[in-house]
Amino acid sequence: MTKKRLADSPTFRQLQTHFDAVGDAAMRTQFASEPDRYSRYSLHAAGLMLDYSKNRLNQTTLDLLMALAREQQVEARRDAMFAGEKINLTEQRAVLHTALRAPRSTALCVDGQDITADVHAVLDQMHGFSEQIRSGNWVGRDGQAITDIVNIGIGGSYLGPKMVCQALRAQAHARLSCHFVSNVDGHDLAAVLAKVNPATTLFIIASKTFTTTETMMNAHSARSWFLQSGTEADLARHFVAVSTNLPAVTGFGIDAANMFPFWDWVGGRYSIWSAIGLSVAVLVGFAAFREFLDGAHRMDQHFRTAPLEQNMPVLLAMIGIWYRNFHGASSVSVAPYHQDLALFAGYLQQLDMESNGKRVTASGQPLSAASGPVIWGDTGTNGQHAYFQLLHQGSDLIPMDFIAVLNASHTLPGHHAVLLANCFAQSEAFMRGKTAVEVRADLQAQGLDAAATEALVPHKTFPGNRPSNTLLMDALTPANLGALIALYEHKVFVQGVIWGVNSFDQWGVELGKVLAQAIARELSGKSAPQQHDSSTTALIALARAAQMA
Ligand code: F6P
């Protein structure tokens, strides 16, 4: 059945009319006239606080956005996802990353299979394994405890574990270091192999499909490197796999007992909660990993049960729709004010852009409105000294998400207050801006003459009215991190429902993969030069010539 076009929906049209009337209304004025603006436009859920008051919206905007969410059946789609319906239509799969963090008592069957039991059996396996590594009972080939974990995987089998290991590094086991190799570029693996001792290194080959070129090439190279000093019999103590593909894992030479399974109803970019999180469980311990799952589950419960108007993922999503579809904002910048979240924006890029970077609806019709924005960002305060100039005074409207943590996990005096001051000052500056009148008064007070003042005024004026959300948590605990990631997962889900796309496939990565295989055969001389455009032909010829030289 072809769904009605989003752009033709009456509520979407009402939002357009509303935007034409108030889209540019000044937040500065709204804050001045609404003393309760923060308390009206903020909420707490699952250990997080969202302040969305510094957005270009009023109560009518929110009412219309929530009406749109209802009209597009966000609640019914959400319930279908949690119930295990096959909402990933192009792959005919359920979407059940939420089941990975549900308690043992949850009843959930997919195709007649009790998946809660399956999930908890693997969690138990991870628990036992992580304790063995951490305690030193699991020893390498010459009896020494493991010191280094090398996770080989890419995309969702890399970004999640690496980001979470970094985020929770304050709780890392003192003996253990985690390394992450993803790129088929041999510089990546070579740099890690140069640092580790094969006798005390554990490789985790993490790949849902166990066919991904980059991962398989790195895994084979790591295996060859290991066998330069070890035997085939030693492999079992140094190589484990996380995958859905048992035959490929055993074909690679990893014992089935050393494989941590997961399932096709877990999308790669939603897999950190599965055994793909094994490196996290080993590094910070299974109890912390369980807290991480529990935090995400709390956000799931909130998303399932809170009315749309007080539902954090829904609010974040619908505010994003307001900027994407009515203000025409084509990117969103994320600024975590915590160095341990340095990889968070990169993680969100895959989560959001691989999910909602689509141009047709789930039923294959061209979209009638723009879909997923570009997601990008870096930590505060670093971004302030790099690209915030454009955010403040550039020509594009780029909504921001600030993420801050009230309590630091270090004890260095003074730093944290300055960090938080910067975070709060930035959102204030984005909202307030600085008018020409204010700039002129400043310059005159500094004693500049009239000509010098007028020459500087346009440069020192900030338009302001630039929107942002602020997310706060008490501390960067595993539970709060789990809730934060789940919040963004559900935001992406809600936006996908509004746009009517399938947020759970990723056909867009296929074409390049196929062409790369053909070109790799040409570069290696295994196949004769093929028909390409003149640019690609010349690039291949240059690379061939460099190889020959
Ligand atoms: O790039 C496409 C993709 O399928 C991602 O969605 C996925 O996370 C990544 O490749 C890695 O896939 P796998 O875990 O199967 O190696």
UniProtKB/TrEMBL annotation:
- Enumerate the catalysed reactions: alpha-D-glucose 6-phosphate = beta-D-fructose 6-phosphate
Q: Which NCBIfam families match?
A: PRK00179.1
The cross-references to Gene3D superfamilies, in alphabetical order and at most eight, read: 1.10.1390.10, Glucose-6-phosphate isomerase like protein, domain 1 (3.40.50.10490)
From which residue to which does any coiled coil extend? none
SUPFAM superfamilies hit by this protein:
SIS domain (SSF53697)
Please name the HAMAP family in this protein's record.
G6P_isomerase (MF_00473)
Q: Where in the cell is it found?
A: Cytoplasm
> Per its database record, what is this protein's job?
Catalyzes the reversible isomerization of glucose-6-phosphate to fructose-6-phosphate.
Question: Where are the catalytic residues?
Answer: E354 (proton donor), H385, K513
UniProt name for this protein: Glucose-6-phosphate isomerase
- State the pathway, as annotated in the record: Carbohydrate degradation; glycolysis; D-glyceraldehyde 3-phosphate and glycerone phosphate from D-glucose: step 2/4; Carbohydrate biosynthesis; gluconeogenesis
As one GO molecular function, the record gives: isomerase activity
- InterPro entries hit by this protein: G6P_Isomerase (IPR001672), G6P_Isomerase_C (IPR023096), Phosphoglucose_isomerase_CS (IPR018189), SIS_dom_sf (IPR046348), SIS_PGI_1 (IPR035476), SIS_PGI_2 (IPR035482)
UniProt entry tagged with the keyword Isomerase: yes
EC number annotated for this UniProt entry: 5.3.1.9
Q: Does the entry feature the keyword Cell cycle, yes or no? A: no
Family membership, please give it. Belongs to the GPI family.
The alphabetized UniProt keywords are: Cytoplasm, Gluconeogenesis, Glycolysis, Isomerase
Gene name as annotated: pgi
Tell me which PANTHER family the record gives.
Answer: GLUCOSE-6-PHOSPHATE ISOMERASE
